[in-house]
Amino acid sequence: MTHDTQHNTPDFAGNPDAAADGVRLQKVLAGAGVASRRVSEDLITSGRVRVNGKVVTELGRRVHPESDQVAVDNVAVQLDTTRRYLMLNKPVGVVSSMQDESGRPDLREFTDQFDERLFNVGRLDAQTSGLLILTNDGDLAHVLAHPSFGVSKTYIAKVEGRVSAQTVGKLQSGIELDDGPIQADKARILASPPGDGFSMVELSLHSGRNRIVRRMLAAVGHPVVDLVRRQFGPLNLGTLRQGAVRELTREELGALLTVSRSAPTPNRDAALANAAEEAHNNDDDVPQAER
Prior knowledge:
GO terms for molecular function: RNA binding; rRNA pseudouridine synthase activity. By secondary structure, the protein is an alpha+beta fold.
């Protein structure tokens, strides 16, 4: 993957397959790393490739990589090879900012090794560790971070006290907080030992309200001791160690792009326009003072 950040689309200058009406589809698929050109031709003729939502079977089809959306077996393909997508297991004590004005440890420690100008998708507060996406794809970042698109995030929390099944039911049916009602998409107990020790709880939700996981658990009588985000949409932290960063696999990226492109909202364009502005006030459990 190229580190050149001066262009937002691949440069096809001097390419004999490039023309005013685009680039041959099989060449674009091969260039994106989907398969060899010969195998890409087989994918096309067997009806497994879609361009802008429509199945394409003719080998002479040309596309514009900077604007057309291509999918293989209904999984989105990124044609713009200047885009970079990374997964970080953010450590505790690092603020979700590319430059912290107070001089605290920030995300530059993990992005300085890359040539591209990267930014984080959403935020985690300084005391929360776990999965954070780093990218230079602004449209995808806005879709994934904005709560109106309904991208689910899963957290594992170590909390005070013994969590009961009734408490889990309350989290899923909904509770009232100072800024309105909230409910978890899913909740389950991972460990709840007898006595007044600590419990482990898994919580999934798509809300982006400030510190929402911590506030929900505190509201049901179980303050958070430790919080880790394990999953973001189709991505799972897996065995990535804390403080480590890696490229997304082709399969992970395809799943992520598919979620982004199929975001179910009638007001997608308006939400995209407002996402950047709202991100500073309504992102992934982080108050302004802790970003």
